[in-house]
Amino acid sequence: MIADKARFRAARKLERAAGFRLPDHVFSGAFLESLGKAINFENLDRRMHEQLQAFFRDFMDCKCKNAPFCGCPERKFTLTIIEFRELGLDHRQISAHLLDEYGIDLYPADILSFLEDSVHMLEAIRDVAELQGREKLAENAIEHIKKIEH
């Protein structure tokens, strides 16, 4: 899963502000739990504060009972990468945007591999939908494939 490869670039800075060791994998349970409960945001520099606010706004806004361990942050992150691609950003631009907006480091090659896997999954969805006569679903899959491959 692409979310498992995402790292918070300033994790060591965040550790100093928190006063304890944090994993640098953004979507690890310990990191998500620490962000929500143990970090004093007043101790952060302006840029890191902005990045974490954007992270909370875009990925952590969830009403699930067991949030943040419900999988919603990871799904939102995955969808965000696909949306950036469909807006025309390439894998390098997506990587740069994630770093700038959220402080998340993700290798462009990992993004490219994820997008290729996504196309293969959509092709399988299209094929099954066509076999089952679900034309609207097949059309939606084809539309997303075109946007990702463009």
From TrEMBL:
<protein>
    <recommendedName>
        <fullName>Superfamily II helicase</fullName>
    </recommendedName>
</protein>
<dbReference type="InterPro" id="IPR043852">
    <property type="entry name" value="DUF5814"/>
</dbReference>
<dbReference type="Pfam" id="PF19131">
    <property type="entry name" value="DUF5814"/>
</dbReference>
